Amino acid sequence: MGDVFLRRLSRWQSDQYREQLADVHTAAYGGASGEPARSRFRDRLSEDSARPGFDLVIAESRGPVGCAYGYPLARDSDRWHGFDGPVPADLEELTAAGRVFLVAELMVLPRHRRQGIGRRLHDRLLAGSGAGLAAMLLSPADAHGDGAHAARLSWGWTTAGKLSPGGGPVLEVFTRPLRR
Questions:
Q1: Could you give the CA distance from residue 127 to residue 148 in angstroms, rounded to a whole number?
Q2: In CATH, what number is assigned to the domain containing residue 126?
């Protein structure tokens, strides 16, 4: 399949890659919901790339084969409103201190999976975050499907709880301490 190279993209470069990354997203998630899901991804990437501290790492081999992106949560973030039970102390304290990096997306084309690309994207993204803690929010189906759970465990993620933001669908919250 050839060599896969990783590189960071600026927010402006991510805008230039938006359509290609939407193609990767559609293929990575089975293309089940077609254009509506593709459009939501493009809109979400556009919104997220405007956030302070946005970071995106792309994996390429004759075009994009995967990417990971995220951003630091704002100090005054109400992200944990709707948490089922008490918010873990480290999550609450580090969010208030502006030291939580949210991994918003990690995706790899199916034909490039199980080659360590997802791990490389994950590690490169988090290495540049400067945060003390990483967080990830996933739907229960995404949290436990297609080897995702085993990968997260081997990468040091733990379950922090469940979140129902604004009465919306339940999301599982995962966290991972980051070395400084």
A1: 20
A2: 3.40.630.30
Q: Are the beta carbons of 177 and 132 closer than 8 angstroms?
A: yes
What is the DSSP-derived secondary structure letter of residue 84? S
Sheet holding 171-177, edge to edge: 5-9, 55-60, 64-72, 100-108, 133-138, 171-177, 158-163
Residue 47 CB neighbour total at 10 angstroms: 11
Q: Which residues pair with 101 in a beta bridge?
A: 72, 134
What is the Cα–Cα distance from 128 to 136, expressed in whole angstroms? Answer: 16
pTM, 2 dp: 0.90
pLDDT tens, position by position, 56-99? 999 999 889 999 999 999 886 677 888 888 889 989 999 988 89
For 79, the domain range is 5-177
